[in-house]
Each structure stands twice: as C-alpha cells, then as structure tokens.
C-alpha cells in the first residue's frame, strides 16, 4: 500500500512539470505556424521590427494560443484522471473574490515602478521593444479582440497552466514561497518579451500566492483579469493612460534616485503582502500526531524507493529546465535582435 501511495504522489508531483513542458511546446508550435502564415500571406516576418502585419491577425493568434492552453489543461487532467489540487471550482468566501480584484489593482500600483525601472534599464542597454498588437487599438474589432484576448482568454488559459497545473507539481516538491517564485519566473519568461519580464514575474508571483492560499485557481484568474483590464483600458481611454503616466513619471520618478528607492520599496511591500498570504497560513497550521505519523511513513517509503525517486526527479527537473531554457534562449534572442 505504501508503494502505491508513493507512486501516486510522484505522478501528482511530476504532472505539473509535464503540463508546463507541453504548454511551452504548444506555444512554440503556434508561433512557428503564425510565422509561416505571415510569410505566405503577407510575405512578412514576425521577427522583423518592420513587420507590417494586421493587428487583428496577431490578436487572433494570441487568442488561439490561450484557447489551446485552456484545452490542454482540461485534456491533460481528463486523460490522466487526476483530480487537481488547486481546482477551478472551489467554495470560497465571497470576500476572497473581492480581495482578488483589489489585489489586481494593487499590483499595478505596487509593481509599476519596478517595471518602469527595468524598462529604462533595457533602453539604456540598447533594447527597443517592438510594436505590440495591443498598442493604439483603433476600431471596434481591434478593441473587442483586445478585451477577448487580454482580459478574458489570457487570464483563464495562463492561470490554468501556471497556477493550476504547474503549481500542482511544484507544490508537491517545494515550500510554498519557492513554489510561488518559480511560478512567477517560469510565467515571466514564457512571454519571451524582455519589456514584460519584471511585471509579469510579480503578477505571476502574486497570483500564485493567492492560489496557494485558497487552493483555487479562480482568485488568480480574477486578479489577472482585473490587472489586464486596467492595462487594456489605458490603451483605449486617454484619461486612464494619462493617470498612469502621471503616476509613474510625476509620483514615482520625480527624480531618478527617488524613483529607484520608491520602486524598490513598493515592490518589497507588494512582495511582503503577497508572501504573507501563504507564509502566515502555513505557520498557523500545526501538524497533528496522525499527520506526523503519515509523514514518517512517507519518508520511510521514499527511502526504500530511492532509485525510483532519483529517476522521477530527473524527469521532473528535465521537464522544467528544458522548456525554460527554450524560453530563455528566445528571450535573449529578442533582447539582442
């Protein structure tokens, strides 16, 4: 019985790495397919800064990616008949949903300074971000696609993969804080965009802390949706854009030294707040005698199955490191190009 339980735990630990590796593979394949379509139809390249592709095409391609992420998540769990630890449907107090929305707003104010600071560093290093299909939307179709993709599809697809499937595996292997940090790092580099690196990391870290605290992916989706909604509104409504421009330039970066200190301070406050959501909860839970006995039995079982444990760990790390290196390689390429 102990051996079967151990094998089942190993499956739960490893499937998070599997779903992350599959998601990166889907991402690369769809990007290559989009590049081929762009080359055939418009005789243009996604890799060139001068690419003059229709924004609708790029937005629709982004939507298809998020739809593929969502389908991958449900098909993966259904095929393997694994019940996710951090489920999409979980009974939570309504206050958690309101708190998730408020924290989505707080992410912008707490981490926007760090994002701007890193963006200034990239400019100093000679990097210029390519034009985004989300920038300067015009017409009903483009604005509708931005809302559909960035505000609805992306939070659902990305949270299911990175705060659902991936965290299910990482949470079995690492402490909660390390799990949240790794989720943020892998999520950030998945975008393969130097300009988005810092904010995407903090957004992923914040969502991971909420998901780990509530055992539900839904608060992470809400936080992600609210954050993306405000960014989308800033692209469509001039007063919203003017407000955040004034916030970063006139409040945070009134001087470089002051902006540097304030950006780090705000990011540290945000990190402490979100870390507290999971760390305080962990410390408040004292193991009972029965739980201690189970832990001793599971440790003994792992020691008796040490060769299998080493093999499973190699597979686990390979499925995490190899896809991450692919995204890191593309990230470096985007920075150099």
Keywords:
0% strand, single chain, mainly alpha, 11 helices
Rg result = 21 Å
Give the amount of beta strand, in percent: under 5%
* Elements, N to C (H/E): HHHHHHHHHHH
| Main structural class | mainly alpha
Number of helices: 11
Average pLDDT for all residues: 83
How many strand segments? 0
Helix content: over 70%
Q: How can the largest sheet be summarized? A: none
Low-confidence stretches: 1-11, 284-305
State the end-to-end distance.
55 Å
Whole-number tally of structural domains = 1
Inertia-based shape: globular
Can you tell me about this structure?
The structure is a single chain. With 337 residues, the protein is mainly alpha-helical. The relative contact order is 0.15. The chain has one domain (2-336). It has helices at 2-41, 55-80, 94-124, 139-173, 176-190, 197-214, 218-236, 238-252, 256-283, 289-304, 306-336. The chain is globular and about 50 Å long. Helix 2 runs parallel beside helix 4, helix 3 runs antiparallel to helix 9 (256-283) and helix 6 runs parallel beside helix 9.
């Amino acid at each position: 019985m102990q051996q079967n339980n151990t094998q089942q735990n190993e499956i739960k630990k490893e499937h998070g790495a599997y779903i992350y590796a599959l998601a990166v593979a889907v991402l690369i394949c769809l990007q290559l397919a989009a590049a081929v379509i762009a080359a055939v139809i418009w005789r243009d390249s996604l890799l060139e800064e001068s690419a003059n592709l229709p924004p609708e095409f790029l937005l629709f391609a982004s939507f298809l990616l998020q739809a593929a992420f969502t389908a991958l998540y449900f098909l993966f769990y259904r095929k393997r008949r694994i019940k996710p630890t951090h489920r999409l449907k979980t009974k939570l107090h309504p206050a958690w949903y309101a708190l998730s929305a408020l924290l989505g707003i707080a992410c912008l104010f707490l981490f926007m300074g760090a994002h701007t600071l890193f963006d200034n560093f990239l400019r100093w290093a000679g990097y210029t971000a390519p034009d985004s299909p989300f920038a300067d939307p015009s017409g009903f179709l483009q604005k509708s696609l931005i809302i559909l993709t960035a505000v609805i599809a992306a939070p659902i697809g990305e949270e299911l993969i990175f705060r659902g499937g991936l965290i299910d595996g990482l949470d079995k292997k690492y402490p909660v804080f390390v799990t949240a940090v790794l989720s943020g790092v892998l999520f950030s580099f998945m975008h393969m965009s130097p300009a988005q690196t810092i904010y995407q990391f903090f957004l992923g870290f914040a969502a991971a802390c909420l998901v780990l605290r509530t055992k539900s992916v839904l608060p992470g989706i809400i936080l992600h949706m609210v954050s993306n909604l405000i960014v989308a509104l800033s692209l469509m409504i001039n007063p919203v854009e003017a407000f955040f421009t004034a916030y970063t330039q006139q409040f945070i970066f009134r001087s470089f030294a002051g902006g540097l200190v304030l950006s780090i301070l705000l990011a540290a406050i945000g990190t402490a707040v979100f870390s507290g959501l999971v760390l305080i909860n962990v410390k408040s839970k004292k193991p009972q005698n029965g739980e201690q006995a189970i832990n001793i039995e599971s440790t003994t079982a792992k020691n008796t199955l040490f060769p299998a444990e080493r093999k499973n760990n190699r597979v686990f790390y390979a499925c995490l490191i190899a896809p991450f290196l692919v995204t890191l390689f593309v990230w470096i390429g985007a920075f150099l190009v």
